[in-house]
Every structure is written in structure tokens, then in C-alpha cells.
């Protein structure tokens, strides 16, 4: 490997809404789906990779996340770095609404970015922990397609599971 | 621009099978999250939340039966409504019934990946063992048990857990009860073993047990009691991380360990953490050459130990970590290092790979001499952090650190951080010495303790800014103590 000029290789990604993003190879390699793709097709690295499942808004947030985490990892490990990572992750999630979280989860799942997916899924879990059935329904946008009898039967099976929940705050 | 259609042979990224039409933003909800993702989200929750979610919609009715992660916590808040109505015995009965029901109704064809439970283990109650039997049949990979036994009754690791031999991670927190280990057995797939607040009775059983887990990479012993152990022998070929922290045990515990010998033979060890009362002896049967980080914070009542004995003990530990890249050392090592080194039989280990050194120290001639000595042993050191534990000292205004060229100061040391610096002569002398001899120093951070008067700070700053510097581009910064400065070391 030449030590003289460090060429940062760029990979081009095209999103669902036809925006092109040039990212450094190191960042693209954080996306396991893309990494595997390149491992199997080494000649394809010059081409533009289409990502029909990811919007530009999503991809840009994901790229920011991966960039920041790569930077954190490059620094020496210590609990003050861990603290900064935690704060960064909290901020990343805090302002986003459920819809935007879902898009990010789907994208992180498709691109197979384990760390981001772990973090996002934990964040969703924290939001729905010990919440009522109605809250979880609204959160995931699911319809209650049970008949009243069916629903009553389910609730009766473990009735105290449905008490003691936190009040809905939405 | 070429379209994909015109190059049919160009490889494409795989598209997930249950995907939604990507441009259709009309379907704004989470209900198209694929099942593995939903499982993943629920894996962070207690099983009670997953059961409750079955009432959300018919789609999720049986989601929980195929959840590979189960999580039950007797201490959790969801049992509070029950606690208001029923006695604690009755509540615990309901808790057990719930776990029984979940395990029985769980999909037979789905294996359990992880099972976490925080429960009780009363004398005549075999529930916990029944659950483990079912889990063994379901090829459980991860088991996290937090068990409280009111009479401190023992917990016996069941043999049938070993039959399918699927276990990879085992964590036991017995809240000070005894762990009975079966003899002549081991887990052939176990990678990580964590014993917290566990009493171990038989050193041979323990040694044989861990030695029969050939894939063990991570061993963590936290708050454990080793009854009548003469030798704590950890000889594991594949061990990467060893964490021993038993300093919170209290009572006459440290007396017991005083008679014990630590033996460590782990050639592939990468990470070593020891925060334990002084034992009788320490031996590294193989010095781990791949060591990256070592933390040594030994602890104990010094009146009970002869200084020479203690020095020998500490130096032995230190010799074994000579390949470390990052080293964190506790105060008593520094207290005994210099005097020991001054003797004819000296400590001549070099830490060639050491890049970062973090020292927890007092501030006294003896400590400073030890610090200087360590700098001499670490020719490639780049970062030095010194955490100062203020204590009484005799002032010696005339004392100066003898001038000499030290390899790391001349060529490598870039950053120095001194935490809780007071305006004492010894601390100022150390700063002076480092500034004078640190030829490639780039940054020195001086952090005041939280109660230091502004006046004292200003006095110290004035002194320090007068010191000659051999590095042309060093910046010296002064700041107040933050929480994040401190938890870095311990």
C-alpha cells in the first residue's frame, strides 16, 4: 500500500428519488449489503449503485451516522468517548418522529448496518416499553382487526399484563 | 446515463422479498416492518410487553410464540398492580405461572436464543430447574440468571443443560449464594462465562469446569467469594478477556484470599482487568504476548502484609503485562515500585508496546520516582494520564527530579493529562520536569480539583507558565474537573 498520497476512494450511490451520493469507501463498507456486493463483484466498484429502497433524506442521515461513528472509533477508547457516543445516539433519535424512525430502520435493515439497526431498534423498544396496547397500535400504525370477543379473550388470558401500564403520553 | 435494463449482466444488490413499493409514501406506518426486525425490537423488551402486544392486531397474535428472546423480571414494575392486591407469595406464584405458560405455548420448532430471568430460588421450589430443562431442549444459546435465595440456598448448575450443549453465553448472579458445579463436565460451545456475587466452594471443580470449556473467550468474576481456595488457576488457551473484580466482597473475605495463589496461563489474552484484594502469590505461566489493555488495581489492608511481600506480588503482576498497549495502574503499585526497584534485584521489564499509561497515584517523592521509573520502562509511550489522590506529604522545597534523557520523553510522548492538581511543590516539580524534557510534547492538560481556590489556581498557572519548554509547539491548558475526566480510569 502506498504511503505517499492516500486516495480516498469514492463510491456513488443512487437513491429511490434519484439523488446521487458520493461516499468514501470506508463509509460504504459500513453497509454490509454493499460490502458483500463488492466482495463478490470487485469490478463493480466504479459503477453507481442503485438503492431503490432508500430515500435521499434517509441515506443522508445514515451517512452522517456512519461518519460520526467511524470518527468515534478512530479515537482512543475511553468512557468519555462512550459518553459522547451515547449522547450522539440519543440526539440522533430524539427529534425523529415514528415515521422517520421506521424509514431509517427499514433502510438500515436493507443496507445491513448492524450497529445502527441495534441502536434504532433499542430506541423504538424504549418508546413502547410498558405502554398500553392502544399506544403500541398507534405507534406502529396497525389496525385493530380483532372482533370484540377475540380481543376480550386475549386480554382475559393474562389480565394483569394489561394493567400497570404507563399512561399514554401521546 | 445507462439504465440497469440495458446491462442485464450487471450484478444488482439483493432486494428484500417482503418489500414495499419504495416510492409509495401513502402507506405511512410501521406495519411493514419485516418480522425479524419486529423480533429484534421486542428482544429489547420484557416478554410481558410482547404478550401484551399480541392484543394489538391479528398480525401479531402469535408473534411472541416465535420470539427467540425471552425476558422475565420479578422486580419489574408491571407486577405492582398485583402486589397491591395479593401477598408476595401469591404474586410470585403468578409470576411462575406466567413463565410456565410462555414456555409451554412457545412454538416447538423455534429454538430459544436468549433467556433472561430475575427470580427467586427458594428451597423446595424446582421451577427454575424445570425452566432450564425446557430451555436446554430448545437449544438455548444465552442464559442470564439473576437468582435470589432467601436462605442463601445453593444453586446447582444442572447437568442436563450440558446435553444439547448449545450454550454460548452464561451469566449467573446468585446474590451471594453458593454455586454448585457438576464434576467432569464442561460446555463445549461456551464462549462467555460471567459469575457475579457467587460463592465458589471447590477450587478443583471450578478449575476443571472452566478448563473443560475449550472455546471460552471471556471470563468475568465479579464480587465472587472463593472459599478455601489455595490456588485460583485460570489456564485457558482461547481466553481473550479476563475480568476479576472482587473488591466489594467485604467481611473476612480478603483474609481468605490472602492464602490463595493466582495462576494465569492464557497465551491469547488481549484484555486483563484485576481489581482484587492482595493474594498470597501471583504467577503468569505464560506471558500473554497479544495483550492490548491491562488494568491493575490491587487492593487490601496494607498493615496485614509485609511490604517486601507485597512489592514482590505487585511486581509479578506487572511483569506479566509487559506487552500491553494500554496500562492502567493503581496507587499501591506506584507506592511499592520505586523502593523495590532501588534494591539490587531489580525490575527490568520494558513495555515496548505501551502507548498509553494511566496512573492513579499519590503525590510524594516516592510516587514521582515510580512514575519516572515507569516512563523509563516505556520507550514508545505517547499518552500519559496521572490521576492524583491528594494526601498528606512532607514538603521538601529543594527537591528536584534528577535530570536525564528518557526515551519516550525525547521521541514519543505527545500528550500529558494531570488530574486534580493542587499547587503542591511535588506536582509542580513533575510538571516542570515533563515540560523541560518532553521534546515532542504537543499538549499538557492540567485539571484542577473541584474545591481549589481561584487564587491558588492563578498562583500555579503563573509558576507553570515560567517553566522552560523543550517542545516548540506544546500548549498547556487549565480546566475544571468534569465527571468525564474521572471515570476514565477506574
UniProtKB/TrEMBL annotation, chain A:
Checking Pfam families in the record gives: Skp1, Skp1_POZ
Give the UniProt record's GO annotations in the biological process aspect.
Answer: jasmonic acid mediated signaling pathway; protein ubiquitination; ubiquitin-dependent protein catabolic process
Keyword Lipid metabolism assigned: no
Mind telling me which SUPFAM superfamilies this protein's record contains? POZ domain, Skp1 dimerisation domain-like
UniProt entry keywords in alphabetical sequence: Ubl conjugation pathway
Has UniProt tagged this entry with the keyword Oxidoreductase? no
Q: Which Gene3D superfamilies match?
A: Potassium Channel Kv1.1, Chain A
SKP1 component POZ domain: residues covered: 9-70
Signal peptide (from-to): none
Recorded metabolic or biological pathway in which this protein acts: Protein modification; protein ubiquitination
**Residues of the SKP1 component dimerisation domain:** 114-161
The record's PANTHER family line, in alphabetical order, gives: SKP1
Q: What does this protein do?
A: Involved in ubiquitination and subsequent proteasomal degradation of target proteins. Together with CUL1, RBX1 and a F-box protein, it forms a SCF E3 ubiquitin ligase complex. The functional specificity of this complex depends on the type of F-box protein. In the SCF complex, it serves as an adapter that links the F-box protein to CUL1.
Query: Subunit info?
Result: Part of a SCF (SKP1-cullin-F-box) protein ligase complex.
- Family designation: Belongs to the SKP1 family.
Quote the protein name from its UniProt record: SKP1-like protein
The scientific name of the source species is Theobroma cacao
What does the organism's lineage look like at the top?
Eukaryota, Viridiplantae, Streptophyta, Embryophyta, Tracheophyta
From TrEMBL, chain B:
Instruction: Note the InterPro entries from the entry.
Output: F-box-like_dom_sf (IPR036047), F-box_dom (IPR001810), FBD (IPR006566), FBL13/AtMIF1-like (IPR050232), LRR_dom_sf (IPR032675), LRR_FXL15/At3g58940/PEG3-like (IPR055411)
One Pfam family from the record: LRR_At5g56370
Please give the residue ranges the record annotates as the region Disordered. 1-28
The UniProt record lists the F-box domain at: 27-75
PROSITE patterns named among the record's database cross-references = FBOX
What domain of life is recorded for the organism?
Eukaryota
Which SUPFAM superfamilies does UniProt cross-reference here?
Answer: F-box domain, RNI-like
User: PANTHER family recorded for this chain?
Assistant: F-BOX/RNI SUPERFAMILY PROTEIN-RELATED, SUPERFAMILY PROTEIN, PUTATIVE-RELATED
What's the protein called, per UniProt? F-box/FBD/LRR-repeat protein At1g13570
**UniProt source species:** Theobroma cacao
Q: Which gene encodes it?
A: LOC18614504
Amino acid at each position: 500500500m502506498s504511503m505517499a498520497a492516500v486516495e480516498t476512494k469514492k463510491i456513488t450511490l443512487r437513491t429511490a428519488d434519484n439523488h446521487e451520493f458520493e461516499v468514501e469507501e470506508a463509509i460504504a463498507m459500513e453497509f454490509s449489503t454493499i460490502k458483500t456486493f463488492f466482495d463478490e463483484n470487485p469490478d463493480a466498484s466504479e459503477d453507481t449503485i442503485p438503492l431503490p429502497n432508500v430515500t435521499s433524506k434517509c441515506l443522508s442521515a445514515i451517512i452522517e451516522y456512519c461518519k460520526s461513528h467511524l470518527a468515534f472509533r478512530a479515537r482512543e477508547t475511553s468512557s468519555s468517548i462512550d459518553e459522547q457516543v451515547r449522547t450522539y445516539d440519543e440526539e440522533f433519535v430524539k427529534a425523529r418522529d415514528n415515521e422517520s424512525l421506521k424509514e431509517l430502520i427499514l433502510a438500515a435493515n436493507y443496507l445491513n448496518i448492524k450497529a445502527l439497526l441495534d441502536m434504532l431498534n433499542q430506541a423504538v423498544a424504549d418508546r413502547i416499553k410498558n405502554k398500553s396496547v392502544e399506544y403500541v397500535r398507534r405507534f406502529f400504525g396497525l389496525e385493530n382487526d380483532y372482533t370484540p370477543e377475540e380481543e376480550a379473550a386475549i386480554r382475559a388470558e393474562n389480565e394483569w399484563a394489561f394493567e400497570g401500564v404507563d399512561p399514554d403520553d401521546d | 446515463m445507462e439504465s440497469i435494463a440495458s446491462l442485464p449482466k450487471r450484478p444488482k444488490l439483493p432486494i428484500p422479498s417482503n418489500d414495499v413499493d419504495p416510492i409509495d409514501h401513502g402507506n405511512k406506518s410501521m406495519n411493514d416492518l419485516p418480522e425479524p426486525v419486529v423480533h429484534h425490537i421486542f428482544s429489547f423488551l420484557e416478554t410481558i410487553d410482547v404478550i401484551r402486544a399480541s392484543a394489538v392486531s391479528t398480525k401479531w397474535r402469535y408473534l411472541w410464540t416465535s420470539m427467540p428472546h425471552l425476558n422475565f423480571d420479578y422486580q419489574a414494575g408491571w407486577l405492582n398492580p398485583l402486589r397491591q392486591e395479593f401477598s408476595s407469595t401469591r404474586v410470585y406464584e403468578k409470576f411462575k405461572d406466567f413463565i410456565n405458560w410462555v414456555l409451554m405455548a412457545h412454538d416447538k420448532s423455534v429454538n430459544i436464543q436468549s433467556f433472561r430471568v430475575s427470580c427467586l430460588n427458594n428451597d423446595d421450589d424446582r421451577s427454575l430447574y424445570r425452566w432450564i430443562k425446557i430451555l436446554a431442549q430448545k437449544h438455548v444459546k444465552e442464559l442470564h440468571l439473576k437468582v435470589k435465595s432467601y436462605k442463601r440456598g445453593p444453586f446447582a448448575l444442572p447437568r442436563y443443560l450440558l446435553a444439547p450443549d448449545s450454550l454460548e453465553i452464561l451469566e449467573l448472579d446468585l446474590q451471594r449464594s453458593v454455586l454448585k458445579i457438576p464434576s467432569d463436565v464442561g460446555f463445549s460451545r461456551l464462549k462467555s462465562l460471567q459469575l457475579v456475587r457467587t460463592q465458589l466452594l471447590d477450587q478443583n471443580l471450578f478449575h476443571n469446569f472452566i478448563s473443560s470449556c475449550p472455546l471460552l473467550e471471556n471470563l468475568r468474576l465479579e464480587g465472587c467469594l472463593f472459599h478455601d481456595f489455595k490456588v485460583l488457576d485460570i489456564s485457558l488457551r482461547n481466553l481473550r478477556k479476563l475480568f476479576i473484580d472482587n473488591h466489594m466482597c467485604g467481611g473476612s473475605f480478603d483474609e481468605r484470599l490472602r492464602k490463595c495463589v493466582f495462576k494465569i496461563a492464557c497465551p491469547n489474552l488481549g484484555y486483563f482487568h484485576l481489581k482484587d484484594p492482595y493474594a498470597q502469590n501471583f504467577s503468569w505461566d505464560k506471558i500473554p504476548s497479544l495483550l492490548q489493555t491491562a488494568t491493575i488495581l490491587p487492593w487490601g489492608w496494607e498493615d496485614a502484609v509485609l511490604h517486601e511481600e507485597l512489592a514482590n506480588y505487585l511486581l509479578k503482576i506487572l511483569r506479566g503485562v509487559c506487552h500491553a498497549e494500554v496500562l492502567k495502574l493503581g496507587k499501591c503499585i506506584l507506592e511499592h515500585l520505586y523502593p523495590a526497584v532501588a534494591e539490587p534485584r531489580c525490575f527490568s521489564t520494558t513495555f515496548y508496546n505501551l502507548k498509553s499509561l494511566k496512573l492513579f497515584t499519590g503525590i510524594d517523592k516516592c510516587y514521582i520516582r515510580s512514575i519516572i521509573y515507569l516512563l523509563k520502562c516505556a520507550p514508545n509511550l505517547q499518552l500519559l494520564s496521572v490521576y492524583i489522590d491528594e494526601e498528606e506529604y512532607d514538603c521538601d522545597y529543594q527537591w528536584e527530579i534528577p535530570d536525564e534523557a528518557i526515551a519516550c520523553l525525547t521521541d514519543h510522548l505527545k500528550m500529558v493529562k494531570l488530574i486534580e492538581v493542587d499547587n503542591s511543590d511535588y506536582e509542580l516539580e513533575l510538571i516542570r520536569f515533563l515540560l523541560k524534557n518532553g521534546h515532542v510534547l504537543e499538549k499538557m492538560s492540567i485539571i484542577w480539583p473541584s474545591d481549589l481556590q481561584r487564587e491558588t489556581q492563578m498562583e500555579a498557572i503563573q509558576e507553570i507558565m515560567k517553566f522552560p519548554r523543550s517542545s516548540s509547539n506544546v500548549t498547556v491548558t487549565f480546566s475544571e474537573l468534569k465527571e468525564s475526566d474521572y471515570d476514565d480510569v477506574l
